[in-house]
Amino acid sequence: MVDLAPLRASPAFARLWIGNAISGIGAQMTVVAVGLQIFDMTASTMMVALVGGIALLPMVVAGLWGGMLADAFDRRALLIASSLTGWGAVLGLVALSTWDAALVAEGGRAPVWPFYVLTTINTVAATISGATRSAVTPRILPAHLLSRAAALNGIAMGTMLTLGPAAAGVLVATVGLPITFAIDAALFTAGFLGVLGLPRLPPLGAVAKPGLASLRDGYRFLRQAPNIRMSFVVDIIAMTFGRPYALLPAIGAVAIGGGPVTVGALTAAAAMGTLLASLFSGPVAHIHRHGVAVARAITVYGAFVLLLGAVILAMALGWGGPVAAAWPQVSWPALAVAAIAMAGMGASDEISAIFRSTMMLTAAPDDMRGRTQGLFTVVVTGGPRIGDLYAGIATTLVALWAPPLLGGILIVVLIAVVTRAQRSFLAYDARRPTP
């Protein structure tokens, strides 16, 4: 079972972890609700995919700049500022969704573009918060507990992704989108209290002033850090070709059936896989070949992505019977297999994330952690946005089954190629961490 030692060793980490888990439930509700809102307004998977695509460039800038800020300023103060910015964006979504609901009652619709703007602001704030929070962890925990902390963070993420999307699916179907967004705004309080409970965290040693010089220092460090670079590459491959979430509204509407409840159920299945992998993560402390573990976990991830594509293709060929975009008019066998695929994806991705994040925190020095974590955050949040675009384009050009079916094959093949090309990654030993 998971090791709870980090929660006992550091009350500050415990408060931050609990607050992040609670507020993250609301954040994941909003992720699902925004997709459902835009699909309801446009009936277009491509328009849903643009939520991530539009936010991609601002998120990349935010990750790089936020990482520099985390190396230059008090990390607690930066977390407070970015958290309040994200909260304001969610309150804006509450107001905008309420306005749209009022217009629907009168036979009209609100414009779509403000949803993209507010979601982008929220993404930027979350990117800066994520990079800073990760850089905080080695300052409030001893090094030997970092892999355990990564596993605990997986439990928090699994809880968010299990309860948030499931609740979003039910709430959107019952009480509507505005209240769903409002609940996220209310749950934000817990995360903010966790941030307030941190001690002051000013920079250690020389301060790297944000700017081009700081970026060049980070670039020079990464040029000499092949293992950290490869951890970015393999995650980008997995998220670019194995990101199914932009497809879920269409899967619930036309492939498997069940509408918003199916969207919530499949998203929650992935989160349950994440949660179970974290709960049974005790052995991670005894695994030292982190590069091998990451490569194998992502290969398994690709196999489950392929399984999801096979399910959607089977339904397109008429093997699952008639379905409709209303619960419970759903193909139960297809839903069951798709849920298994999503759970497998969540579990294997979490195993990969535990080892990748531990490599990040142990192999990089503290004065580089903000910038490396900023880039890491760009990768783990930007990769899915590229994946959303890939899913939208492939669906538009081919069919709904094409992105996961072809993507799963590409993941398995590309991971085998790139990891064999970078032998030091497969030889990485956590007992002698080298960037």
UniProtKB/TrEMBL annotation:
Keyword tags: Cell membrane, Membrane, Transmembrane, Transmembrane helix, Transport
Entry GO terms, CC: plasma membrane
Chief location bin: membrane
Record-level Gene Ontology MF annotations: transmembrane transporter activity
Protein topology in the membrane: Multi-pass membrane protein
Localisation: Cell inner membrane
SUPFAM superfamilies to which the protein is assigned, alphabetical: MFS general substrate transporter
InterPro entries in the cross-refs: MFS_dom, MFS_trans_sf, TM_effector
Transmembrane regions: 12-39, 45-65, 77-99, 111-129, 150-173, 179-199, 232-257, 263-285, 297-320, 399-418
Repeat in keyword set: no
All residue ranges annotated as the Major facilitator superfamily (MFS) profile domain in the record: 183-435
Protein name: MFS transporter
Native species: Agrococcus sediminis
